[in-house]
Each structure stands twice: as structure tokens, then as C-alpha cells.
Amino acid sequence: MLVGPAWSQAQADAAQEPVASVVVTATRAAKAVDKIPGAVSVISQQELAAQYQIADDPSQALATYIPGYAPSRQKMTSTGESLRGRQPLILLDGIPQSNPLRAGMREGYFADSAIIERIEVINGASAMQGMGATGGIINYITKTPRANGTSSGVNVRMASQLRSDNLDWKTGYSVSHKSDLLDLLGYASVQQRGMGYDGDGRRLGIDNVQGDSLDSHANDLFLKVGKSFGAQRLQVELNRFDMAGDGDYKNEPGVLAEGVPTSSVRGTPPGATPRNKVRSASVDYRHAELAGGALTVQLFRHHFESLYGATNVATFQDVRIAPKGTLWDQSHIVANKWGSRVTYVRPDTLVQGLELTVGVDYLRDHTLQRLAMTDRTWVPELKFDSHAPFAQLEYELGAVTLRGGVRHENAALHVDSYRTLAAYGDQPVQGGSAEFSKSVKNIGAVWRLAPSWSAFVSRSEGFGLPDAGLVLRGVNTPGQSVSNLISLQPIVTRNHEIGVNWRARSGQVGLSRYDSRSELGSVIRINSAGVGLVERVPTVVKGWELSGEWRPQGGVSLFGSYALTDGKTAATQGAPLDLDLGARSQGPDKAVLGANWAWQPKAQLRVQASHLFDRDINIGRKVGTSNLEEHFKGYTLVDLASNWETAYGKIGVAVENLFDRQYVGYYSQSAAATDAGNTYAGRGRTLSVSFSRVF
User: Fold this and answer.
1) Strand 579-580 and strand 556-569: pairing?
2) Which pTM value belongs to this model?
3) How far apart are CA 440 and CA 30, in angstroms?
4) For residue 608, is pLDDT > 60?
5) Which residues of 385-414 are buried (b: 16+ CB within 10 A; e: fewer)?
6) What would the pLDDT profile of 265-320 be if each residue is shown by its tens digit?
7) Tens-place pLDDT, residues 104-139
8) Alpha helices in 605-661 (DSSP H)
9) Maximum pairwise Cα distance, the chain
10) How does DSSP classify residue 145?
11) C-alpha–C-alpha distance, residues 377 and 311, integer Å
């Protein structure tokens, strides 16, 4: 996967260094992990390569390596995939990929996995990268040439369950160059995914409406060009990603009474197939020696489109267009973002050891949701503008690092006048604006107790907005205006956390306890008509997270993690916090255990097991017409991956779900248990083979 000799050597060198030397950039400045007050995770290129051998699924990699990340849906849609019971802000080299104004839950597929060098995860609420990080920050960092010279590479991956219609394949070609003049990385790939089968040998159910990775194709074009001028550097990055269904299969509902999950049959579903279209561009400038500090400026543009499959739900009906029950339509979300990030970091400000970080962010986000087949407005264009100055101080006092900062967000949302769909009464809604101004703060400390040991305590705040689109599209009473309907009072999440870490050459262990609270949170509840409603109620998520790795001898390492998550909310404002958060918001308790063994100098073997614990919540509880009772029977999955370095290239062989376990996914069991068309089983045993070579 785009791994050249220089990059492989860099990984080997890094493996010999103390873990404390790992540096993350998602904090707005490069920082060693042992100086950050909070739970920080870095998924390395080597770890990603092993996981993508098993399953080329971005959310499955996060679920494996990040304790608080919910299980993957194995679909194009990511509904129910949360971080510590809340939504994370997803970034690609600092460019926001999330769409909080109208969260269509399709932001998980935005780039080919082969261009990713590492993933940095800031667990817990954070405002350092802007709006939307109530659960944390997930920053995908793309690869950069490391060694002088020019090289090219090819990578191929194939996966199959040895059925005629389930072959997955991907091939990519890369060009890398580094010299005193410039550095360049270019990558192009094409990918085709077939169908899949569960542990009982039944064809997996395809989601023709929300979107699926089954029976789909994708392609990516990526280019990064940079040039250094002494202490200065200029870099341009472009990414063009497309993913769409092939439309060869239709959803076949299961039989709930007999425990038979959803399946698929050959056939052409109505309308155009679901798709994701992503275009990202950025220009980055850095001056490392400006007035005693370092200046970083990023300008970015991001265009995102998600088309959903055709359906004839009651919401889309309009007898002026077609008889009731016969009108099919497709949801289409379009989001355009422009923005800038300016950061200046100056060490030893006024006194030695005091570091000052200041900057300002600007974001313009225009998002709308339309019905593509009839060109109707479902959610009017949401025009959001914000600017946010911030400042942070960090002080090194011997073995203690103290950090505190504040970010002041100024935002406005404007919506023009519009009419709702006929299903809501064709109501005219007067346009208007809403504004808010809010300061969010963070404070924390790290104490390096002894060699290899450190402890931290932190209090951080993150902010987001309720899904404004869900509110605006559902207006069903006359005489409403945007100014009255939309409260831009943000969802401010306060995360309190304490933890201890041990990091040494022989391994690492981290244990943390967190308490995350939103006095005015946002919960989506599905009523008896299947319509999602936004409820502004308090939410509290508490949890424990434990993760570690032990390297008892050269070539052998053991790793594992455990996450206990307990989320609570209320039926209404002022009611007791006695309702458990459902699968839309929170994952089950989870444990992961595995081992790596370099059984030959150029050969590695990896075995890992993931266990999801049972979860039965809200027995007999309802709010309005929303039934909140959920049941989940846990399961354990075992995967295997191996690779060999040969004179002809790197060869990999992996098996997902080694023991061919039959299971229905967490979200399907919990939130969709009464929907015969959405009880999706997971993949059965799947064999994959990969090959990569650098020329």
C-alpha cells in the first residue's frame, strides 16, 4: 500500500524509539503525546496496512484501534458509528469532511485508504479544530515522500468468499519524488466491490437507500506537491474521490419471527444508485522562523455530494405529481465549504518554557438537501459563516506541563424563505437568520511522574449545532419563520478526564476515566412513522478506557484494549437522566486482543479478536411514539493477517472472520430490530490477497 523502502525503514526505526517520541499534529502544533493532557491515539501506517489487508473499511480500522469507537456498519452509511457516544469531527490533513448542518452520515468514505499514512485521534470533546468535535477529532494524515529520488509503485488487493459474485479488487499506482527543488506524491486507484455472504452462506443484505459498499465501484485521484524555501514551505494538495453502487441487486427483507436477516436478490433497484462525490483542495504555507515562532496558514475548499437511493416513503408523496404511494424520489445532500486556518506558535514567550499559540479560523459552509428525481427542496440552503480567534498557553515546569486556552466562536446561519413538502402541508416558511457567540475553554496538566510514567487531568469543551436541516424540513404548522424555528444555541459538551500512562521501549499502557456532559444536547428519536426528530435534552456519557501493547522480545508484541461506555439522557428537559443512549448514539462495551509475530526477518503474522458485549436497555420505555427499548446479543470475531517481503515485492494474505461466525451487526440488532429490511448480517469468512511493489 504505497510503502516504499524509505517509508518501511522509517517504520522500523520508529518501532525502536520510545513511544513518547510519537508526535501528533491534530492539536494545531506538533506535540509529543506525553505532553498532551488527554487520551490521544495514533494509528500508525503499519497498523493501518495490516487492518486494510483484513478489510478495506475505514470505520472498521477505527473500531479495531480506538477503544471508544462504535462497531462498523460495513456499509457506505455510518449511522450509529460514534466516538465515546458522540459525533467526532473528521478531517483529512486538517480539511473538515464532516457535515454537521445536515448530517447525512455518509462522510466515512472520502479518500482511498492507500494514501493514508496515519490517523490521529483526540478522544473527548475538543474545540481546537472548530465545530463538530463533541466526541473528539479524527485526523487522517496523508503520505509524504521521505527520501530523495524518484520512485513509482503499484498495489493490488483481491478479496473473496469463493462465490461467483463476491470478488473485491483494487489496484493503485503511485509516483513519488523528492529533491531540493520539490517533493511530489501522486496516486490513482480504481476499486470494484462485489456482494458478500454471511456465516450461514446467505447473501448479505444490500442497503439500496442509505448506500452500501456491496456491489459498488470507486476511484481516487490524489496529488500533493510541496516546495521548501529554507525555513518556509508551500504545499498544494488535491483529492478527487468517487464511490457509487452498481445497481445489480435489490434488498430482500428478512423474516423477523424466524430470525432470518435481510438478504439480496438480483435485480435493478429504481432510480440512480447511491453515490459519494468528494472534491478537496488545500494550499498550506509554513514559516518556521518568523519572529521567533512558526506561522502556519491553510486555505481549503471542500465539495461533498451524497445521493441516496430511490424510495416511495410517505414523506415524498405529492398527489399533484403522482397518485399517492406511487411517487419515488431520491434524497441528495450537497455541501460546499471554504475556509482558512491561521496558527502562530511561539516558544519561550516572555519567560523560558512558556509557549504561546494564537490564531483564527474562518469557515463558510453552504449545505442543502433536495429531492433529485422531482427537483424539490427538502432542506433549503443553509448558509453558515463563522470566524473564531483562539489563544493557548503551555508552560513547562520541570516534570509538569500546564496547558490552557480559549476559543471564541462567532457564527451566523441564514436561510431564505421556502416551502415544505406536501407531506408536511406545503407550508410557507419565512426566511431569517440566527446568530450565536460562544467561548469554549480547555485546561489540563501532565505530570511525568517517573521514567516511562505520566498522569494527566483535563477539562475540555467542544461545540456543535443541532441538525438544523432535520428541523427545517419537518415544519407542518403555518406561520413559521426560520428565526423562530432554529435556535443556534450550540451543543456545548464538557469533557472531564483523568488518566495514567506508561510508555517504554518494551510497551505502553494507558488507562483513563472520562465524564462528558451536555446540558442542552441533541438526540435523534425515530417515531412510529419512521421519521427522525431532534430532541434538545441533556446527555451524559461516562466511561473507562484501557489500551496497551507489550513487546516481550524482538519480533513479538501483544496488544489489547477495553472500553466501557455508559450514556444517559432524559425524556424531556427537566426530566431525570434515566434513559440509556441508543445505538444511534452509543456503541456497546468492547474488548480487543491480538498479537504480532515477526516469525522471519521479512515476514509478519497478526492475529486479533474483537468482542462486543451484550446490551439490553430501556426495557418498556417510550417517549411519544418512539420505542426506546433495544436488545443486543454480543459476539466475538477473529481475524488473521500475514505478509512477506520478497525480491519481487510485498505479498499479503489475510482472513476476516476466521471462524466464519454468523452474526447480525450491533446497529441492526439494536436500532433496526423491528425492520425486516434493515437487519443486516455481517461478513462471513473472507480471504484476501494483496501485492505491492516499488520500482
Assistant:
1) antiparallel
2) 0.92
3) 22
4) yes
5) bbbbebebebbbeeeebbbbbbbbbebebb
6) 999 999 999 999 999 999 999 999 999 999 999 999 999 999 999 999 999 999 99
7) 889 889 999 999 999 999 998 887 777 777 888 999
8) none
9) 76
10) -
11) 16
